[in-house]
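DM from R.C. (forwarded with permission)

"hey, sorry to bug you on a friday — could you get me a structure for this? deadline for the figure draft is monday and I only need the backbone to look sensible"
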Amino acid sequence: MTQRTCINAVGSNYMRLPQLIILLGLVGCVNACTHLAFQPSRQLFVEPTQLGLTYQNVAFTSADGTALHGWFFPAQTTQVKGTFVQFHGNAENISTHFASLVWVTKHGYNLFTFDYRGYGQSAGAVSMRGVHEDVRAAIEQARILSGSTHTTRLILYGQSLGGALALRTVANLDTRHDIAVVIADSSFPSYRRLAREKFAGHWLTFLLQPLTWALVSDRYAPEHMLTKISPTPLLVIHGDQDTIIPWHHGQGLYDRAKMPKWFWKLRGVRHIQSMAPQFRHHREALLDFLAQLEAHQEDHWAPTNETALMPYSMMTCGE
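My reply, with the result:
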């Protein structure tokens, strides 16, 4: 993610020292919150054809009529097990995010990824309320796409900010029978607490932490809705080397949610890198987890504790 220059120093020689300190402090506040801000891009960074992938462009609309764009990658197998729906993080667009999950198409799953308003080829301007409407619209579109491949099983996979958006949206859905699991990778329960933590991590903004209560809203924070995710299964994934959103935020999601739920704390993994190519064993574990979950759901079985369904021997994987 990029840092943005927020100050023009021209004329600073005429500022009094206290004014300069205050101004620099406010600049630091802005930079501390960079990772919470939307940072969309219209640029196409990587095209699926460059990787030899078959896909189709998908045009659909949000509730307010905003035109949205996505890519649908069909499963590369005869049997289709379900459809992954990717909710990417705050920066750039789907062209830099799809590769992190497109590997699932080799294992019997479709992948549908899309851009929020203001990102990529999606129209409109980004807003917190608007992107939540977009997430809901994407789930509905995924249902249509899944039906075309004769499967109704959805795996909702939210990364970073996308995890927070997906969690809150799912909690408010009237119909969730076709959602096999919600996966929150490198995500968080509270925008405000994450911002406060960023402020506390820099000497210039340390004393300005109280400003987060005025500058950052938790109106759309997922923590208020986490108990409503149940009985839809929830899998929280977080790397112990995540310096952007430290792993205790993932722990916070898990702690606030009700059963059925699982928490994978992954050793040596950075921000949204849990399914990177070098972590092939994590990919295999996720596929095993989904297979076990499907078998139990077909038997109309619901786990009553977090140890009832684990592809790894420990919840804190690798430890």
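R.C.: lifesaver. Residues 24 and 204 are 8 Å apart (CA to CA).
me: no worries. The chain has a mean pLDDT of 84.
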